[in-house]
Design goal:
The chain contains 24 helices and 50 strands. The chain is of the alpha+beta class. The strands form 13 sheets. Strands 8, 9, 12, 13, 14, 15 and 28 form a seven-stranded mixed β-sheet that branches. It has a six-stranded mixed β-sheet with strand order 41-42-43-40-34-44. Helix 5 links the parallel strand 8 and strand 9. The radius of gyration is 36 Å and the shape is elongated. The N and C termini lie far apart (89 Å).
C-alpha cells in the first residue's frame, strides 16, 4: 500500500502498465516491483525447480525471485528483474516459469515430489530403462529447463557498443562514490561516475537519515547536480559496471531506453561500454543477506533493507502488519522507520540477547528467532521461538536481516580472492587484487554513512596521488556514525526446508547432504547442489551457504573459502556485447578507412583474414571482373594506382633490445639496418618452416616498425610476445600492435612520385628518397610516414597517416590518380601484379615451405642464430628432391591455369603417386598476354623449360604448362629502383 508523504516518486505523473494482462497503476519513478507491491500484489514468480510461489525479496539487481518477461513478440525480454525495471505507460509485463498461469501453476506438483528431487538427484536418476533417456527423460527435462522463454523471432531492437576513457572511474554512486567523485572532480581529474540505478545516491535514497542537516537524498542530489555541471565529469546512471579486466579496462552495460515507452528511430535499447580508466574506485555498497529458516521463501518475506527502501524511496509499505527479524541493529532501523510511517509493526524479533527496547512502541523480543512461517501464495503468520517456547503472530510481511555482505565481486574478476573478516562476519576485498583499484565504503566494510563519506574522500586522495594530482581540502559532511553490531546467525535449526538459494531452490539440507556425500570443497558443493549457479550468481546466498558448509564439515568459513567470482556482475544480453553484429556471422568484421568509399565505387568486397577489402572497382561498360582487373593492372604498370594496404599487420617495437629481438625472430640481420631504411625479412617457426614474411623499418635507434601479412598479424604478434615473455624476459623491449592506428595506402606506378610531390610539403626525388627508404613527412599539415617499398615491382610508395585521416586521404589519392589517368586497384589486380613479380603470399608459405623451398635459403644468415634455423637444417628439409617454387605458363591449346591443380610429367598417369607438384596461385597477366602462375615442383629450379601436364580433377581442366622462373616482369628490378 502507498504511504502518504513518503517516497521520491512523481505522484503528479500516473503511469499504467499490465502484468499478465491485468492493468496496474503506478507513478513515474516506480519500478515494476514497487508498483506491484503498492497494488497489493505480492506473488510475482515461481521458483525454478519446485515452482514454489515467490515474491520480491530485495530492491536491487540482486533480486532472485521477481524475474519477469517484458515486452511482446520479438521485443519480449525474459528474466528482467522487477526491482530494476522502471515502469512506463503501456509497459507489458508477464510472469514466467509457470503453467498455465502464475496463480495456478500445474508444475507446482514438483514440490510434492521434493523428497525425490534433492541435491544431486540428477546424478542418481534417469539411469533406466536405458532407452527412456532419448524418448522420455531428455524431452521432459529440456522442456522444464531454463528460466523464461525467448520469443523465437528475430530481435528487432538496436544495440550499441561504445568506448570511454577517463582518469578515474568511480563505480557506484552511493555516499562513498559521490564523495569520491566530487573530490576527484574538484581536483581536475577526468571522472566517470557509473551506477546501475536510475537515481544516483545509493542507500541515501532509501534511508530516513540526514547528512549535513538535510535529508540524505537531498544532499546526494545536490552533489550529483554539482558533478553534472562540471565539464570533466560524465555521469552514467542506469549503467552497471559488469567486469574488471587487464590494463584498467572495464565492461559496463547501460540501459539506454529500457525505461521509455517510445524510442527515437534507431535509438538503442542498451549500450555496452568498454571503459579504460587510469585509476578506479569501487564503491558498490553491500548486499543484505537473508536468514535461513523453515519456509523463509513465502511471498511477503523480504530483506529489511529492501522494506526500508520501498518505504522511503517509493512510498510503499509491503504489508499492513510487518514483523521484523534480524541479528543486527539494521533490523531496528527498519522497525523504527515503519512505525514512524504509521505502519503496524507486529514485533521486532532479535536473535541477540539483551537488546535495547528504547524508543520502541512495538513489541521487541530478545534472544528470539523466527523458526517457521504460514501461508500459501502470501505470508499470513510467523512462528517465533523464544526461551518460553514457540508461538505465532499474524503478519503479512516479514523483514529479515542477517547482516551485510560487501559487494566485492569486481575485485575478484582478475583471479583475486577475498579475505574473511571475523569483525563483520563477511568477506572483504583483498588490497591490490585489481591494479589501480581503490575500494571504499560499504563494499570495504564501512557500514555507517559517516564511514562511507570518509572512505570516499580517502580513496579519492589515493587515486589522485597515483595520477599525480592533489586533492583540495574538504570539510567532511556530518552524518550518522553508528557502529555496526551483529551476532552471526546463518540458519535457524528446525524442521522444514530452510532456503538459501531462492532462484535454484537450494536449502540448508542440500548443502549438508553434499558434505555428507564428500562434496566438501566449496566448488564441488556448488556444482552438486547448483548453489549460486542461477542468474543472480548467489549474491544473496553464497556466504550463508559457505557458513552451512563450514559447519557441516567442521571448518571455519575462512578455511572453507569462496567460489570463483566471474564477470559479468549482472546478466548482459549477447546482443549488447555483439552490438552491430545482428544478422552477421560470428567472425569479427574489420573495415578499412576506405571501406565506405570503396562501396560507393561499387567495389565487391572479399574477406582477407578478418578484413573486408575491395576485389575490384568496376567502371562503365565493363561486363566482368577480368576487364576491371586488367584495367587496374594497367594503371600500375603505365600510370599510377592506389591501393589500401592498411590491413597489413603493423607492430611497433621499441627499446634498447629491439634489435636483438629482430635478429632472433628474422632469418636475416636487422641490427645493422640504418635509421630511415626498410629491409625485407623472413620469419621461421620453431620447426624450421616459414611462418611469415614482410618488411621492417627502422624509425629510430631503438624504434622499429614491423609489417606482417594480413592473415598472420595475430600469429606473429603472439610469437613475439612468446619470445619476449618466455625466452628472453630480461630484454628491455616493448611491443604494441598498431595495425588499426594507421591508414596506409600504396601509391604504385611510373607516376607515383609525381602524384606524391603534388601533396607532400617537401618534394622527394630518387636521391633524397631512394628505394627501401622511410621517413616522416607532412601531408597537408598532417604528420605522416612514407615508405619506398613495392609489392607490385613498379616505382612505388606506401604512405601512412593516423587512421582518422584515412578516408580523406584515400579520396584525395584516388582523385589525383584519376587526374593522371590512373585510379584505385583492388585485390584481384594486386594478386596479378605480385604474380608477375613472383612475390609470395600465404598461398605459397602455407606452413609446409622452407626458406630453401621458396628460393630464399641465402636469407638465413651465417653470422647469427635465429628461431627455427637449427630445425631448418634437418636433412629432410635440406633434401634437394623437395618441391621448389617455380613459375608456370601455359604452352598448349588450353591457356587456362587454376590454383590447386596437380602437376605431372608429360605422358604420366594423373594419379597421386605420380604427382610432381602443384599450383598455388594463378592469374591472367595483361602484360605477359596469358595466364601465369606459381607452384611447387620437385627439384623445380633445375627443371626450368620442362613442359608438364596440369590436371585439375575438381574443375576437370587439363593444360600443358612450362616451368619457368617465378619472375615474369622486369626480372632485373630496375623499375622499382628507378
Amino acid at each position: 500500500m502507498r504511504i502518504a508523504g513518503r517516497g521520491l516518486i512523481d505522484r503528479e505523473t500516473p503511469v499504467s502498465f499490465t502484468f499478465d494482462g491485468r492493468r496496474y497503476d503506478g507513478f513515474a519513478g516506480d519500478t515494476v516491483a514497487s508498483a506491484m507491491l503498492a497494488n497489493g500484489q505480492r506473488l510475482m514468480g515461481r521458483s525454478f525447480k519446485y515452482h514454489r510461489p515467490r515474491g520480491v525479496l530485495s530492491a536491487g539487481s540482486e533480486e532472485p525471485n521477481a524475474l519477469v518477461t517484458t515486452g511482446v513478440g520479438p521485443a519480449s525480454e525474459p528474466n528482467v528483474r522487477a526491482t530494476m525495471q522502471e515502469i512506463y505507460e503501456g509497459l507489458a509485463v508477464r510472469s514466467q516459469n509457470a503453467w498455465p498461469s502464475l496463480d495456478l501453476d500445474f508444475m507446482a506438483v514438483n514440490d510434492l515430489a521434493s523428497p525425490f528431487l534433492g541435491a544431486g538427484f540428477y546424478y542418481k536418476t534417469f539411469m533406466w530403462p536405458r532407452n527412456f533417456w532419448k524418448r522420455v527423460y531428455e524431452p521432459v527435462i529440456r522442456r522444464a529447463a531454463g528460466l523464461g522463454r525467448l520469443s523465437g523471432q528475430p530481435n528487432a531492437d538496436a544495440y550499441e557498443k561504445a568506448y570511454a576513457f577517463c582518469d578515474l572511474l568511480v563505480i557506484g554512486a552511493g555516499p562513498a562514490g559521490v564523495m569520491a567523485a566530487l573530490v576527484a572532480a574538484r581536483a581536475g581529474a577526468d571522472v566517470i561516475l557509473a551506477d546501475g540505478d536510475a537515481l544516483m545516491g545509493g542507500r541515501l535514497n532509501a534511508e530516513s537519515e540526514r547528512v549535513d542537516g538535510e535529508p540524505g537524498h537531498v544532499w546526494a542530489a545536490g552533489v550529483v547536480a554539482e558533478l553534472a555541471a562540471m565539464d570533466n565529469v560524465r555521469l552514467m546512471p542506469r549503467t552497471t559496471v559488469t567486469g574488471a579486466y587487464d590494463g584498467g579496462m572495464f565492461g559496463a552495460l547501460e540501459r539506454v531506453n529500457q525505461h521509455r515507452a517510445r524510442r527515437g528511430e534507431g535509438a538503442p535499447l542498451e549500450c555496452f561500454w568498454r571503459i579504460a580508466a587510469k585509476q578506479s574506485i569501487l564503491a558498490a555498497g553491500a548486499l543484505e543477506r537473508p536468514v535461513a529458516f523453515a519456509n523463509n521463501d513465502r511471498p511477503g518475506i523480504m530483506t529489511a533493507g529492501a522494506v526500508r527502501a520501498y518505504l522511503n524511496r517509493w512510498g510503499v509499505a509491503p504489508g499492513k502488519q510487518v514483523a521484523v527479524f534480524g541479528n543486527n541493529d539494521d533490523a531496528h532501523r527498519t522497525a523504527h522507520d515503519l512505525a514512524a510511517a504509521g505502519v503496524h509493526v507486529a514485533a521486532l524479533i532479535d536473535s541477540r540477547e539483551g537488546v535495547s527496547r528504547e524508543g520502541a512502541d512495538f513489541p521487541v523480543l530478545s534472544g528470539a528467532v523466527v523458526c517457521n512461517t504460514s501461508g500459501g501464495k502470501e505470508l499470513e503468520a510467523v512462528s517465533i521461538r523464544t526461551a518460553g517456547g514457540v508461538h505465532k503472530i499474524q503478519a503479512d510481511c516479514l523483514a529479515m536481516s542477517g547482516g551485510w555482505n560487501p559487494s566485492l565481486h569486481l575485485t575478484c574478476h582478475m583471479n583475486g580472492r577475498p579475505t574473511w573478516s571475523p569483525e563483520i562476519h563477511a568477506f572483504l576485498p583483498t588490497p591490490g587484487a585489481v591494479p589501480g583499484m581503490h575500494v571504499a565504503g560499504a563494499c570495504n566494510g564501512s557500514f555507517s554513512t559517516h564511514g562511507c563519506l570518509a572512505a570516499g574522500v580517502a580513496a579519492a586522495g589515493e587515486a589522485l596521488a597515483a595520477l599525480g594530482r592533489k586533492a583540495e581540502p574538504l570539510d567532511l559532511p556530518q552524518a550518522d556514525d553508528a557502529p555496526y553490531r551483529l551476532a552471526p546467525l546463518w540458519a535457524v535449526p528446525g524442521k522444514g526446508r530452510a532456503w538459501l538459494d531462492f532462484q535454484n531452490d537450494v536449502c540448508v539440507k542440500d548443502v549438508q547432504q553434499a558434505a555428507a556425500e564428500s562434496f566438501r570443497s566449496v566448488e564441488h558443493m556448488k556444482r552438486y547442489t547448483t548453489q549460486g549457479m542461477a542468474p543472480d550468481q548467489g549474491k544473496n546466498s553464497n556466504v550463508a551457504a559457505l557458513a552451512v558448509l563450514a559447519d557441516a564439515t567442521g571448518r571455519g568459513i575462512a578455511e572453507t573459502g569462496t567460489t570463483t567470482f566471474r564477470p559479468p556482475y549482472t546478466p548482459v544480453a549477447i546482443a549488447a556485447m555483439g552490438a552491430g553484429g545482428q544478422g552477421k556471422g560470428f567472425a569479427p568484421e574489420r573495415l578499412t578507412t576506405s571501406h565506405a568509399a570503396s562501396l560507393a565505387m561499387n567495389a565487391p568486397m572479399v574477406e582477407a583474414g578478418l578484413w573486408y577489402r575491395p576485389s575490384y572497382f568496376p567502371r562503365g561498360q565493363e561486363r566482368n571482373w577480368r576487364q576491371s582487373c586488367d584495367r587496374e593492372v594497367g594503371f600500375v604498370r603505365r600510370t599510377v594506382g592506389i591501393c589500401d594496404v592498411s590491413t597489413l599487420g603493423k607492430i611497433d617495437i621499441q627499446g634498447p633490445d629491439a634489435a636483438k629481438l629482430l635478429d632472433l625472430v628474422y632469418t636475416n640481420t636487422f641490427s645493422t639496418l640504418k635509421v630511415g631504411k626498410v629491409r625485407y625479412g623472413l620469419m621461421l617457426r620453431e620447426d624450421g618452416f616459414v611462418m611469415d614474411d614482410g618488411t621492417c623499418a627502422r624509425l629510430g635507434e631503438r624504434h622499429y616498425l614491423m609489417t606482417t601479412t594480413t592473415g598472420a598479424a595475430g600469429e606473429v604478434m603472439r610469437h613475439l610476445e612468446f619470445v619476449t615473455q618466455c625466452l628472453h624476459p630480461e630484454w628491455q623491449v616493448h611491443l604494441s600492435s598498431v595495425t588499426e592506428h594507421w591508414a596506409q595506402f600504396a601509391v604504385a606506378g611510373p607516376k607515383s612520385r609525381e602524384l606524391l610531390n603534388g601533396l607532400l610539403a617537401q618534394p622527394i626525388d630518387n636521391d633524397s628518397f631512394p628505394f627501401m627508404a622511410c621517413g616522416d613527412v607532412r601531408l597537408g599539415g598532417v604528420a605522416a610516414r612514407l615508405f619506398r617499398i613495392s609489392f607490385s615491382g613498379e616505382h612505388a610508395y606506401e604512405i601512412a597517416v593516423p587512421a582518422r585521416f584515412g578516408a580523406a586521404l584515400f579520396d584525395l589519392l584516388v582523385a589525383r590518380a584519376e587526374a593522371l589517368e590512373g585510379g584505385a586497384y583492388g585485390m584481384e589486380a594486386l594478386n596479378v601484379l605480385r604474380l608477375e613479380k613472383g612475390h609470395i603470399t600465404h598461398a605459397e608459405i602455407d606452413g609446409r615451405a622452407t626458406a630453401e623451398d621458396i628460393g630464399m635459403g641465402r636469407m638465413l644468415s651465417d653470422a647469427k642464430d635465429c628461431i627455427g634455423k637449427t630445425m631448418s637444417e634437418r636433412p629432410g628439409l635440406r633434401d634437394p628432391n623437395r618441391a621448389q617454387l617455380v613459375g608456370l605458363r601455359p604452352v598448349g591449346a588450353v591457356k587456362q591455369l587454376t590454383a590447386g591443380a596437380f602437376l605431372f610429367e608429360a605422358g604420366a598417369e594423373a594419379s597421386r603417386e605420380n604427382a610432381q607438384g602443384h599450383t598455388t596461385s594463378v592469374g591472367f597477366s595483361p602484360d605477359v598476354g596469358t595466364f601465369i602462375g606459381l607452384g611447387f615442383v620437385t627439384r623445380g629450379r633445375a627443371r626450368h623449360g620442362e613442359v608438364m601436364r596440369m590436371v585439375d580433377h575438381l574443375r576437370e581442366i587439363e593444360a600443358e604448362v612450362e616451368i619457368c622462373a617465378p619472375v615474369f616482369v622486369d626480372p632485373e628490378g630496375g623499375r622499382a629502383r628507378g
